[in-house]
Amino acid sequence: MSNTIEFLSKLHPFRDSSKEDLELVVACLKSKLLQPNEYLFQRQEAYHKTVYLVQQGKLEQHRQSGQILILEAGDFIGLANFIDASPYLSSTKALTEVTLLCLPATELQELENLCPPLFESINRIIAKYIRDRGNNPRPVTSHALCLPARSIMKSPLATCGINVTLLEAYELMRKRKIGSLGVINQDNKLLGLINFVSIADAMLIHGAKHDTPVIEVACKKDNTISPDTPIWQIEEIQQDKNLKYIIVAEDNEPIGIISQTDILNNLLAHQGLLFTEISSTTSFSILATIYQRIAEVANEARENNHRASIAVRNISEFHLALQRRCIELTLQEMEDNGLGMPPTKYAFILMGSASRKEMLLNPDQDNAIILADNLKSDKDKQWFKTFCEQINIHLDEIGYILCPGNIMAKNDMFHKSLKQWQQQIDHIVHLPTKKAARWANVFFDFYHLYGDDELATTLSKHIIQELKQHPRLLKMMVEDDAEGQPAVGWFNRLVTRRDQSGKNKIDIKRNGLRIITDAARIYSLKHGIVNRNTADRLTALVRQGIFNPESMKSIKASFEELLDLLLEHQLYQMQNNQELDKLIDPETLSPLHHESLRMAMRTIKQFQEKLQIEFDVADY
Questions:
Q1: Which terminus, N or C, of the chain has the lesser number of Cβ atoms within 10 Å?
Q2: Structural domains of the chain sorted by starting position, each given as residue range(s) with its CATH number in brackets
Q3: Inter-axis angle of helices 591-617 and 549-575, nearest 10
């Protein structure tokens, strides 16, 4: 018993536990011995109702995504399954003789009441394991807590140099209406963070003068995390250090910032038992049945969120959960049919409204795949060809119709290795055409749905880098955007077009929302902003100083107004068994909404004109 206590005390989860707490744990443990090549469990095997801790030896774990992990002394096995008693989605076998410490699930549950601090440590490991399992949906709270920092951060971080004075920093934050600034040196390396509170402390408590450089008195040097830090850990750091803001840095260069409000909004967006139901679905037909509840999901999202953009983001999370689960079932189907698991790494990505988390009630498919460059054999290439064809078929079966433009992963044009994608990007950036600009306005918004996030991140960084060096394509993307005109004409009156029924209507997407979306994308690409959601991009443009807060307020309000009108319109159509479209009849609106629509279109027209003027006079 003493040897086991000594072993546990050296592990991070138990490091702060008392001897009495460790004795409680050891009393519940049993030992298990595995011989080399002996399986602890195999994929789809029923949960053993046990959590394992490796005491000696090495094991090899083959995950559903194709990832292979080596497990050694101190690693836990089965903590993620402990949450919902789900079957194992990986296979684990011993590489050497292995000694395991076995903790039955019932005893682990009792420890939660007997020793809460210890269980909190175990919960942290559970969160890490869920995140490491790679896009495997879990009960929604866990999924939200395990998302990485890059998924919720505001980007870029507003910064200032080391010689900026306290007064200058204060005026800069007040002008931009932001609460903090990163302090960087000449090499763009992060030195710390300042905010209104730290400036006030420096001047009122420590007696600093208004012309004192911020680096001397107001710079906190320890408020940084990496882009991969999970949300539960960020929340813990903020609580421990009483921080409102925390900087996200990569190689000590600031790339974003996260506030307590950002975390709260993310957690609220992931609430709901429906996501748990989706994650446990075992057939495509059941997924199709769940898809039919989209009106219920949309109504609830709209009622529970004051801003339409947040409601639509919640609707999009529902769509993404369905599509993610569809991929998992497709992987399982292929394995059951003897085709095996993915032969190499890949990233299944979504474009269009899905990538921006702006899907409404009936989105079609816009997807692609990025393959690792080590894919060589025809057999392996055929595996991915079959994989993508099956995903597109199954997505269609559950409710996401095939893309009319064939923008789908089964199409060779959207089925490439990372190197091939990079070469295609290089070609259209160096030799831009009208067709390339339209393609870029579709593809440059992409979202990593499943597989290896690193492939998608690498391609995204490549796009930003190439456009920074060769920005001519951006001007052509502006010209492509100009083909859609805001629905406002002389004397700022609404401009309508007759539909097939002879009624005068406005295409809210083409003549409104898309113009804002395109402009936000182009500005973001120009300035290296990695956010894809339109509302997030508009916020980032203010943080970067591209737009002043007051002018951006009207653009944001216009975006929210049109999005809310469109969401309400489609909900009405669905409830009345009408075909869904994006055409609004202004005559059906109340006087208040009619005026709001007119003012929104006027604002959008000004936004588009600003975009066209800026890129027309620029030297491209």
A1: N
A2: 2-133 (2.60.120.10), 151-265 (3.10.580.10), 272-417+447-453 (no CATH), 490-617 (1.20.120)
A3: 130
